[in-house]
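Subject: design request, 486 residues
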């Protein structure tokens, strides 16, 4: 599929005409002026802008810096001193409005950027103003497109939305996230040059890296011929499913429907290592990739020199599984392979029993201890795998008789860490039964984190309520309300 550079060539030609007409002094001719372009989306046209480096030619590999701006600010951002400094340093600079993410508007704009430019190292460099919550949200939505994220400007007094978006970006795996403050344009350009240079591989390893960039870029732009020139018929492609082992020729037949689209798939490398054989004609690589659907992935394999160019001889695409998720996922895989229905995960939410007083870490009252024994009787026949409590004595004491009867040890997790607990339950106890003893204000949060749609609540003096949350088994997450007495 031919690469659509006609639009870009027209833009550059217009820039040249403008330069001749102005006849500015020689030093003003170093960079062309910013050029506007529009992207057609389902929500209408999106006004974007670009600032080109000097002597740029179509199909050149260049680092790309993406400024995320307000809806009417693309031309101003592309012409501002930071963009000019980056273009002078050799970057292609693109300014894209943040929008609100509706109906994939920003994704369409970023796909257009990939069609216009061959992005060196695959991932763009995102720049955003510190307090611009919509721009931060844009980068967060499209984090798979970027190898670095930088924010500029004062960070004091950020609103809660902007602060939360920045914290989420700072946790992204494999990214270089920088807070540049009020850095001067030259300092900003130097910083991005350094970050970009950190990933640049030298000599022959750099040639291998460029071949891999070309490989991924061809897929992102639906260029079937270029992609399979890099993955020849006698290559081997190993997919994420255990049954997916194709020769290059077989993979081309499989992938044909994908390459009928404007983009087959987009995987962006955020880290890469290359090692060459002493002969210099074989290279081994591994790379960390990001993808909008699958998240962090890993590619590894072998390239060989053939007819004077590097081609992929084997590519192995995998989805790394964090250790905390491995056990639950393995059980689900075994069940699927055995043709067994997926077992639901059952989470029994119980509030602590009655306490002696209103102190911060009050013990159970006599009535509370009696209720704890009743809870053990009611739940004792369930195949409970784990019991969780908060750090407070009243929750630990409520499940103590149950744990004693089952031979389990309750695990205490901070009462505020409901999202973390939901992750642990999904990861480590898929298909099992778990009991969580918490508080009237934390159990509703946990239920929501587990996916329960309807809010649940506990009355101030309600100590006999159980909420049984069921996850999986092909149904929506639900919570059954039950009661137990003494």
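Subject: RE: design request

Done. Sequence follows.
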């Amino acid at each position: 599929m031919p690469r659509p550079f006609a639009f870009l060539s027209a833009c550059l030609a217009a820039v040249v005409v403008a330069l001749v007409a102005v006849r500015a002094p020689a030093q003003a001719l170093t960079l062309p002026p910013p050029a506007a372009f529009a992207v057609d989306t389902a929500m209408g046209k999106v006004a974007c802008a670009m600032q080109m480096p000097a002597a740029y030619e179509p199909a050149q590999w260049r680092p790309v810096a993406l400024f995320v701006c307000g809806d009417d600010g693309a031309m101003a951002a592309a012409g501002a001193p930071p963009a000019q400094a980056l273009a002078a340093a050799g970057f292609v600079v693109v300014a894209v409005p943040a929008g609100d993410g509706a109906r994939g508007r920003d994704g369409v704009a970023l796909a257009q950027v990939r069609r216009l430019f061959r992005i060196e190292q695959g991932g763009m460099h995102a720049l955003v103003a510190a307090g611009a919550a919509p721009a931060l949200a844009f980068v967060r939505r499209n984090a798979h497109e970027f190898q670095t994220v930088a924010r500029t400007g004062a960070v004091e007094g950020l609103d809660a939305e902007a602060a939360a978006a920045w914290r989420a970006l700072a946790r992204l795996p494999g990214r270089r996230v920088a807070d540049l403050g009020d850095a001067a344009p030259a300092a900003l350009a130097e910083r991005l040059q350094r970050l970009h240079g950190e990933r640049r591989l030298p000599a022959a390893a750099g040639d291998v890296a460029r071949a891999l960039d070309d490989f991924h870029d061809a897929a992102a732009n639906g260029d079937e011929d270029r992609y399979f020139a890099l993955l020849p018929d006698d290559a081997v492609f190993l997919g994420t499913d255990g049954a997916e082992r194709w020769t290059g020729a077989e993979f081309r037949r499989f992938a044909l429907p994908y390459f009928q689209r404007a983009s087959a798939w987009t995987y962006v490398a955020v880290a890469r290592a290359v090692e060459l054989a002493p002969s210099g004609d074989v290279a081994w690589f591994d790379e960390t990739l990001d993808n909008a659907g699958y998240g962090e992935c890993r590619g590894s394999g072998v390239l060989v020199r053939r007819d004077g160019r590097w081609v992929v001889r084997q590519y192995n695409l995998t989805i790394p599984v964090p250790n905390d998720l491995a056990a639950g996922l393995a059980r689900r895989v075994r069940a699927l392979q055995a043709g067994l229905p997926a077992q639901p995960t059952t989470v029994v939410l119980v509030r602590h029993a009655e306490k002696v007083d209103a102190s911060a870490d009050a013990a159970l009252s006599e009535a509370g201890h009696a209720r704890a024994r009743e809870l053990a009787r009611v739940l004792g026949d369930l195949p409970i795998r784990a019991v969780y409590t908060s750090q407070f004595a009243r929750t630990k004491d409520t499940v103590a008789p149950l744990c004693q009867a089952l031979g389990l040890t309750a695990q205490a997790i901070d009462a505020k860490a409901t999202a973390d607990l939901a992750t642990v339950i999904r990861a480590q106890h898929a298909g099992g039964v778990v009991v969580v003893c918490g508080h009237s204000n934390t159990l509703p949060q946990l239920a929501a984190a587990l996916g329960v749609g309807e809010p649940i609540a506990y009355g101030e003096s309600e100590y006999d309520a159980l909420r049984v949350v069921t996850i999986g088994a092909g149904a929506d997450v639900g919570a059954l309300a039950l009661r137990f007495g003494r």
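The chain has three domains: 6-198, 203-318, 324-483.
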